[in-house]
Amino acid sequence: MTAGTTLTDATTTAEHELAALQREHGRPLFALLLRLCDGDRQRAEDLVQETLVRAWQHPEALRAAGFESVRPWLMTVGRRLAIDARRARQARPAEVGDAILENARVIGDHAERAAEMLDVREAVKTLTPEHREVLVLVYFQEASVAEAAKTLGIPPGTVKSRAYYALRALRRVLPGYAADLR
Q1: Is residue 174 within 8 Å of 120, Cβ to Cβ?
Q2: pLDDT confidence bin for 130, thresholds 50/70/90
Q3: What does the DSSP assignment read for 46-64?
Q4: Among 120, 131, 133, which Cα is nearest to 181's?
Q5: Furthest-apart CA pair in the chain: how many Å?
Q6: Distance, CA of 171 to CA of 166 (rounded, Å)
Q7: CA-to-CA distance for 40 and 30, rounded, in angstroms?
Q8: Cβ contacts of residue 52 below 8 Å, gap of 6+?
Q9: Per-residue pLDDT, 17
């Protein structure tokens, strides 16, 4: 700063220079970065802003005697920032949008499944021995009605009615699982 210049004057001058850079080179810089960002306007705008911040941080580069224009320097900085941003995105896992998460299938975990099994076991213990035998054969051991009838020595109709009443009793004991027992 010179002897008669204040900090406020220097800040204002830098802001004016930055605004002039934006007006003169902003559109071509944005067009380049938009192509490098595959049409992502928000990302391109962010990179234009970052490029101008770099210009503000390095005023010596903008005033170098060998440059006819600062545009090549701005374009190079912007291109390098775009390349760095692309590499950073590729190094991270892909971002997932909210729409994809809403349609994702929910899978229960093992702890939840184990708790459900314990609940069902306790509920089965509350059944009468006759109902429990039929339920275990037909639903847990996957025997047919005829096979269960033969194993237990009772008619198939009795197997069906005991299975029906056993499930009905389980629905009363396990109200939260009623949809699973239909």
Answers
A1: yes
A2: very high
A3: HHHHHHHHHHHH-HHHHT-
A4: 120
A5: 112
A6: 9
A7: 11
A8: 18, 21, 22, 26, 74
A9: 79
Segment 125-130 long-range contacts (CB within 8 Å, at least 24 positions apart): 126/169, 126/173, 127/166, 127/169, 127/170, 130/162
Name the band, by pLDDT with cuts 50, 70 and 90, for residue 5.
very low
- Which amino acid belongs to residue 12? T
Which two tokens mark 57? 């941080």
Distance CA 59, CA 64 (A): 9
Mean pLDDT of 120-132: 90
* Torsions phi, psi for 174 (to 5 deg): -120, 70
pTM: 0.45
CA distance 79 to 29: 9
> Which token pair is 11?
């800040």
* Beta-carbon contacts of residue 18 (< 8 Å; ≥ 6 apart): 52, 55, 56
Report the distance separating Cα 174 and Cα 119, nearest Å: 8
